[in-house]
Design goal:
- This protein is 12% helix and 52% strand.
- It has a single domain, classed as Immunoglobulin-like (Sandwich).
- It is mainly β and 121 residues long.
- Strands 3, 4, 6, 7, 8 and 9 form a six-stranded antiparallel beta sheet that branches.
């Protein structure tokens, strides 16, 4: 039952994933808390390369991945092994960078700013 609820939440988050805007000023990505100690990353319509990185508060890369030419990408990351603190998930393509700030407090993950920062390069 627990797994069914979790899968339902991930599916719901996918339905609400951000789509590419007509102006090209948005990366088609979404980050959502999917459990007390995990986050889900969702990307639609990857036409060119997209770099994903998870950084700590000092800017050190904890995890990185490059995606290219995929229709959709959805993955859940378990952050249980990370200590309490501030983190940033960063998505980058050739033109834009999108940052989502996370915070882990007492082992629980929260998105510290619900509106992601988009930076033109």
């Amino acid at each position: 039952m627990k797994k069914m609820i979790k899968n339902g939440l991930v599916a719901a988050a996918l339905m609400f994933a951000v789509a590419v805007s007509a102006s090209g000023t948005e990366l088609p990505v979404k980050v959502a808390v999917s459990g007390e100690r995990s986050i889900g990353l969702f990307i639609n319509e990857i036409l060119d390369k997209v770099w994903i990185s998870l950084r700590d508060e000092d800017g050190q890369v904890i995890y990185s991945k490059t995606l290219k030419g995929q229709k959709n990408y959805a993955v859940e990351y378990d952050l249980r092994n990370l200590p309490d603190g501030s983190y940033m998930v960063e998505f980058e393509d050739a033109n834009l960078r999108k940052r989502v700030h996370l915070v882990i407090v007492e082992g629980k993950v929260a998105i510290s700013n619900p509106v992601a920062q988009v930076v033109k390069k």
